[in-house]
Amino acid sequence: MERKNPIVFLDLQPFTAPVAVLLEEKVVLVATSASLLTTAGEALRQLLHPLVPSCVYIPILPRNLLDFIMAPTPFLIGVTAQCRPHLPPLDDVFLVRPCCARG
Asked: What is the value of pTM for the model shown?
């Protein structure tokens, strides 16, 4: 039986994104700036330390390589918000929006 995960929009909560990475799910970080993407991706990796996830890690995926998100392997990829409309269909990807501050 094929397993399909829903697209999930989350704030970067303490456990959801790291657990998805540890469970070898496909995780895409979407943020407005490249510096926030890098910071969020590195923060996730540090939360998992000393464990080393067996997934592909790409802090910032260029727009011309967005089709890589359809790869069958688990990954942690950062995508800028400007690229979000150009993403291919996402059937089994966790979409995570890191937040800096709450009002």
From this structure: 0.77
